[in-house]
């Protein structure tokens, strides 16, 4: 049992030393129970002027040690806690030990020969706040989410080379200043080893995908979606599959491997479909098997409704919805906006069909996500039955007491990846009530509004460009 240090005889709090911050009781408790972030507003009015990466000790109101972290002067997260033992320094030895432990865990829980796209270091969950390392075959991609780690960057890279001997290591700097500026990177920086080709092949299960480790944002294959892709394969046999927001077609490839009889992929980027065709070929499938449609998903769905085209399985994994400014000032409503997508999707899903819905939810909780599914089903005058749930694969560990790590959205400037919420829902074969004339008119207007003025949705475009394809940048 820890003995608390009494306050001095004058009744004043203990004097706080330089590079030491006293935390309010609730913040101290949160850090003690595992939360590794201290937000800037929690530091109080005391001015701080240390350089980025300066070790800062955290103490409670009685002066007892709580933790030690690195200071970030340009982030809303002012401190990232590395240790909770006052005798442990934040230095190269700590970095080496934690890199070694993280890699040993992946070797123990995964078949790294069958899975070549793997998260090796998942930031705070592996005791390395602000640091993410992904492996793609013989290449590594390091993502840095804080400038505070730059003083230990060489130790990090040297440790990765010592443990894995990769052909190359590429680095992405994903942090932003308080003013919103981010490091300018036209491509990921080569920081160790030899330059990688623009495209390399990696294995996932018995399938092969083409990725680009030099891309400044996305390589083209999201390892966190692995369990969702496997769910598609499990449910695809004998089904007509619609893959919305298809990106580079990984879900389509899994649908083909699972025995889908028909595959239709929809994405706004023609270059994404070109990459999808290469993924089909890399896995030994006919690249022209899927029907590729370039267009806005909601407008394409409206056209399908007009033509009475239906599917037996629909997969939706939308990118982050636009900001209010991009939406013409329309306020964001997570349940309403995702529910609208679900409603439009159910309009083309046959009764008894399967909806596989994914959400990287930094704008809605898991409960809100399920509520959006329920609202969407209600508006489509049907019901959904959840029959399967998938979440992050084991190479994406999380921490109790740190919900932000389970909610890390893609390319979030502050840090961690949010929990994947992947649900498999079956549309029940219920006869909806007979709609009123007003409801029918309203629904027709909604479908017509989604489908206006987009001639591209009838086209199947072939674009064999070899430029890196980046969903976030194109959207």
Main features:
5-stranded mixed beta sheet, 475 residues, Rossmann fold, 3 domains, 11 helices, alpha/beta, 7-stranded mixed beta sheet, Transcription Regulator spoIIAA, single chain
Short description:
With 475 residues, the chain is α/β, with parallel strands linked by helices. It is built from 11 helices and 19 strands. β3 and β4 form a beta hairpin.
Structural class: alpha/beta
- Report on the biggest sheet: 7 strands, mixed
Please name the fourth-level CATH homologous superfamily of the largest domain: Vaccinia Virus protein VP39
Provide the low-confidence segments as ranges.
Answer: 1-12, 322-327, 408-420, 431-441, 443-475
N-to-C order of helices and strands: EHEEEEHEEEHEEEEHEHEHEHEHEHEEHH
CATH architecture of the largest domain: 3-Layer(aba) Sandwich
Q: Any idea how many domains?
A: 3
Residue fraction in strands: 15-25%
- The gross shape turns out to be globular
* Oligomeric state of the chains in view: single chain
The tally of strands reads: 19
């Amino acid at each position: 049992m820890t003995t608390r240090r009494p306050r001095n005889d004058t009744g004043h709090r203990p004097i706080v030393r330089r590079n030491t911050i006293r935390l309010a009781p609730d913040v101290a408790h949160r850090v003690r129970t595992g939360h590794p972030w201290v937000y800037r507003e929690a530091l109080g009015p005391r001015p701080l002027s240390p350089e980025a990466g300066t070790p800062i000790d955290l103490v409670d109101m009685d002066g007892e040690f709580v933790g030690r972290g690195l200071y970030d002067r340009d982030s809303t997260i002012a401190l990232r806690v590395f240790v909770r033992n006052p005798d442990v320094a934040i230095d190269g030895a700590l970095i080496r030990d934690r890199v070694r432990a993280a890699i040993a865990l992946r070797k123990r829980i995964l078949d790294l020969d069958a899975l070549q796209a793997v998260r090796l270091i998942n930031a705070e969950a592996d005791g390395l706040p602000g640091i993410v390392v992904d492996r793609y075959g013989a290449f590594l991609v390091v993502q840095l989410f804080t400038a505070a780690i730059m003083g230990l960057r060489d130790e990090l890279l040297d440790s990765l080379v010592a443990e894995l001997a990769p052909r190359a290591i590429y680095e992405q700097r994903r942090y932003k200043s308080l003013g919103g500026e981010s490091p300018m990177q036209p491509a990921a920086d080569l920081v160790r080893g030899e330059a990688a080709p623009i495209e390399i092949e990696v294995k996932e299960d018995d399938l092969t995908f083409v990725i680009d480790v030099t891309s400044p944002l996305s390589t083209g294959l999201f390892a966190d979606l692995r369990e969702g892709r496997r769910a598609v394969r499990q449910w695809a046999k004998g089904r007509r599959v619609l893959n919305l927001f298809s990106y580079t077609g990984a879900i389509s490839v899994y649908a083909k491997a699972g025995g889908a009889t028909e595959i239709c992929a929809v994405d706004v980027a023609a270059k994404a479909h070109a990459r999808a065709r290469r993924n089909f070929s890399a896995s030994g499938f006919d690249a022209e098997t899927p029907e590729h449609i370039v267009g806005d998903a909601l407008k394409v769905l409206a056209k399908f409704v007009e033509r009475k085209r239906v599917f037996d399985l629909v997969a939706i994994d939308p990118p982050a919805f636009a900001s209010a400014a991009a939406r013409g000032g329309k306020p964001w409503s997570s349940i309403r906006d995702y529910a609208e997508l679900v409603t439009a999707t159910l309009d083309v899903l046959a009764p008894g069909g399967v909806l596989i819905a994914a959400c990287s939810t930094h704008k809605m909780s898991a409960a809100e996500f399920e509520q959006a599914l329920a609202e969407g089903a209600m508006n489509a005058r049907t019901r959904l039955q959840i029959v399967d749930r998938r979440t992050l694969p084991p190479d994406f560990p999380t921490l109790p007491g740190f919900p932000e790590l389970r909610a890390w959205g893609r390319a979030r400037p502050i840090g961690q990846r949010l929990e994947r919420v992947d649900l498999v829902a079956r549309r029940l074969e219920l006869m909806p009530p007979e709609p009123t004339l007003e409801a029918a008119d309203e629904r027709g207007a909604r479908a017509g509004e989604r489908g206006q003025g987009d001639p591209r949705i009838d086209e199947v475009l072939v674009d064999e460009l070899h430029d890196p394809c980046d969903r976030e940048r194109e959207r």
